Amino acid sequence: MPSAETTRTSAHEPDPVRPTKADEVAAAGSELIGGPLGRRALLGTSWWTPARVIALVAIGVFALGLVQKAPCYNGAWFFGASSQYTHACYSDIPHLYQGRGFADGLVPYFDRLPGDMEFLEYPVLTGVFMEVAAWLTPGSGSIQHQEQWYWMVNSGMLMVCAAVIAVCVTRTHARRPWDGLLVALAPAFALTATINWDLLAVALTAAAMLMWARGRSLAFGVLLGLATAAKLYPVFLLGPLFVLCWRAGKWRDFGKALAGAVIAWVVVNGPVMLFAFEGWSKFYRFSQERGVDFGSFWLIMAQNSSDPLDTETVNTFATLLMLLCCVGIAALTLTAPRRPRFAQLAFLIVAAFIVTNKVYSPQYVLWLVPLAALARPRWRDFLVWQACEVMYFLGIWMYLAYTTSGDAHKGLPTEGYHWAIGVHLLGTLYLCAVVVRDILMPERDVVRRDGDDDPSGGVLDGAEDVFVLGAAARPPRHAAHFAVPQGPQVEWGTSKAADSPPSPPGSL
Question: Where is this region: Disordered (predicted)?
Answer without folding.
Answer: 1-20, 485-508
